[in-house]
Specification:
The chain has 9 helices and 23 strands. The chain is an alpha+beta fold and 427 residues long.
């Protein structure tokens, strides 16, 4: 016979379970909860955390399935590590109907969001990502990356030079020390992603107004009036996610935003026959060192390649730039491909094109208000060539600024705001 006095007491008192809040977290995170005059339960559904309880000299470790019960009025902190400065729970869960929150490392948040979207129908091509190392120092950086990714639950491993052909049979390993390989990485189609997200917005009752050029902006009590090519739009808050056009948008509000539109080119590589394996994304660039060559599978018999490393001497005008790949760029790309993958079957250059990377002076995105006294006017731009990868976390941080007045979901992300120290010329 199983004796469970606590369950008997709950049954006797007709106690009802009520979920008052919950959260998911990744990377370094911590939340402080105030003391309450009611019984407090919390449970670890997945993963683990540390619990630091007011009045106790040492924290407690909680694993998946552990449940805590707090009967006294004592504050406590839940954290990935006891040394992480906590976010106040009241600010995290503030908002009408807000009982669930996400916080922690931005990259892990983004990956969780992409996995959720993939489960809902967004097509993600998991071809893997191989980053090449030319020096032992770069391999040491990769080893640290493997450790960090492992702590976040992500798969990656070091690959020695003599193992590179196990992943890319056509690669020439001369001059390489090895690489870093993430088997679960890949790519998606930006157009498909935009349509997918637009469907979510519309399903929730939102409206998307396309083909409306922003002509002007006026501040009004409690918000803004945006003048567009199809009439005015009233808004309580504005998020400037204009990419290479973000400085022009900021100027309509009388603000100065320093983002450098940097031109990048890409070319399709046609093959006489499919390779017999899926070419992962391959990148020869680590902290500015390397050729900048990168290439990947696009479809059977077709690759996409580019030189990620460019010498940009002036910012491009997004309304008037060459969107075609220049002939000299094709020659440079062909030479690098012949050096790194010399035996691709019948490889020949196909169509090419160019696009713009919006780059900031410190190569980190701007997310937050330019003027802290105007928290309803948020910038979300300057992610360079990593806009899609960072989109989920950038969107969450921007939403936090609008709804909470601070980026409460990702501790430390306030440093991404376009402050006077960061919003400076250069790239």
């Amino acid at each position: 016979m199983t004796v469970d006095p606590f369950s008997d007491v709950l049954t006797l008192t007709n106690a009802e379970a009520v979920v008052t809040g919950g959260f998911t977290a990744g990377g370094p995170w911590a939340i402080s909860f105030p003391g309450r005059d009611k019984i407090k339960f919390f449970a670890v559904v997945k993963g683990s955390c540390w619990v630091t309880l007011e009045g106790e000299p040492k924290p407690f470790r909680f694993e998946t399935g552990d449940v805590g019960l707090l009967a006294a009025r004592r504050s406590f902190v839940l954290a990935s590590d006891p040394s992480v400065p906590p976010v106040d729970a009241m600010s995290l869960f503030t908002g009408a109907g807000r009982t669930l929150a996400t916080l922690g490392d931005g990259s892990e948040f983004a990956l969780r969001r992409f996995r959720q979207w993939e489960g809902e129908g967004l097509r993600f091509n998991h071809i893997g990502y191989l980053r090449l190392a030319r020096t032992q120092a770069q391999m040491a950086l990769f080893a640290k990356s493997v450790e960090i990714q492992g702590e976040a639950g992500l798969r990656s491993r070091l690959v020695r030079a003599n193992e590179l052909r196990d992943l890319v049979p056509h690669i020439n390993p001369d001059g390489l020390e090895g690489g870093l390989f993430g088997p679960d990485n890949g790519f998606l189609d930006p157009h498909e992603m935009c349509n997918f997200l637009a469907g979510i917005v519309r399903a929730k009752g939102g409206e998307i107004r396309q083909y409306r050029k922003l002509l002007g902006a006026e501040r009004r009590p409690g918000g803004y009036t945006l003048e567009t090519s199809h009439g005015p739009v009233d808004a309580d808050a504005v998020v400037n996610a204009g990419g290479a056009w973000a400085p022009q948008v900021a100027a309509l509000f009388g603000q100065r935003l320093h983002i450098w539109p940097e031109r990048h080119e890409a070319v399709v590589i046609h093959l006489d026959a499919p390779l017999g394996y899926t070419m992962p994304m391959v990148m020869d660039l680590v902290n500015g060192e390397g050729s900048g060559l990168n290439f990947r599978h696009e479809k059977p018999g077709e690759l996409i390649a580019e030189i990620h490393k460019v010498n940009s001497t002036a910012p491009e005008d997004p309304d008037n730039y060459n969107d075609q790949c220049e002939e000299q760029s094709k020659v440079d790309l062909a030479e690098l491909l012949l050096e790194r993958v010399p035996d691709l079957p019948g490889a020949r250059l196909g169509r090419g094109w160019a696009g713009l990377y919006p780059v900031t002076a410190d190569h980190r995105p701007f997310v937050g208000p330019i003027d802290v006294s105007e928290p309803a006017l948020i910038t979300a731009a300057g992610a360079g060539g990593y806009g899609i990868q960072l989109a989920p976390v950038i969107g969450q941080i921007a939403a936090d600024w609008v709804l909470q007045g601070a980026p409460v979901s990702v501790p430390g992300s306030q440093s991404l705001a376009p402050s006077a120290e960061r919003n400076i010329p250069g790239h």
